[in-house]
């Protein structure tokens, strides 16, 4: 277990076929459930998940994540169990995307594309202003792990400074790192830790898999170990950025202290 410093109080090579014609994209409409997770929203928009985003069973989401982005079934099953924990019904066996808006479960403050719950209850809706801050840390056509970490840390700093109810608990902090790790794993070069910026922007802004930009899903299954390793790389770069700021005498946040969070 490694430790990272963040200012707080308290989701490779490309090589597979394009989707079948039945996997065409259609935007969500009135009555469709959506979530704080742009990947799951994209899967519903493409029809890998039910388009209405409701009553999703284990096999449905496991198959969808494998077919769309080649997540392996054990990792997908873990995610399904986490999703079930947000359903306010005992012994639930299915969930709907709107359930994932429960704060500090899968949803978390300092999202790359959503405002904190303190500012808006609509965690299922992409926010251009929030994402504009995120993308400001990506100056080049290819996003590196360091730039990805800078965006993640930058959003934490902004949320910490502006949200009086800001919190990243023991679930939210790893979820924040995973949000960054997942877009590198799903759309980029896993070994190099890089990803084309246009793919990531297209994905977040449209909640759409970037097939038309030449992306194809990973030729190898992405596992929980890949997530842990990439999250660790993002955390290490965050540590380095904070350390460099401290050496230069730059205050990360004058209002709230730095505390340690474990990944």
Automatic annotation (TrEMBL):
<keyword id="KW-0408">Iron</keyword>
<keyword id="KW-0560">Oxidoreductase</keyword>
<keyword id="KW-0479">Metal-binding</keyword>
<keyword id="KW-0349">Heme</keyword>
<protein>
    <submittedName>
        <fullName>Cloroperoxidase</fullName>
    </submittedName>
</protein>
<dbReference type="GO" id="GO:0046872">
    <property type="term" value="F:metal ion binding"/>
</dbReference>
<feature type="domain" description="Heme haloperoxidase family profile">
    <location>
        <begin position="21"/>
        <end position="232"/>
    </location>
</feature>
<keyword id="KW-0732">Signal</keyword>
<feature type="signal peptide">
    <location>
        <begin position="1"/>
        <end position="17"/>
    </location>
</feature>
<dbReference type="InterPro" id="IPR000028">
    <property type="entry name" value="Chloroperoxidase"/>
</dbReference>
<keyword id="KW-0575">Peroxidase</keyword>
<dbReference type="InterPro" id="IPR036851">
    <property type="entry name" value="Chloroperoxidase-like_sf"/>
</dbReference>
<dbReference type="Pfam" id="PF01328">
    <property type="entry name" value="Peroxidase_2"/>
</dbReference>
<comment type="similarity">
    <text>Belongs to the chloroperoxidase family.</text>
</comment>
<dbReference type="GO" id="GO:0004601">
    <property type="term" value="F:peroxidase activity"/>
</dbReference>
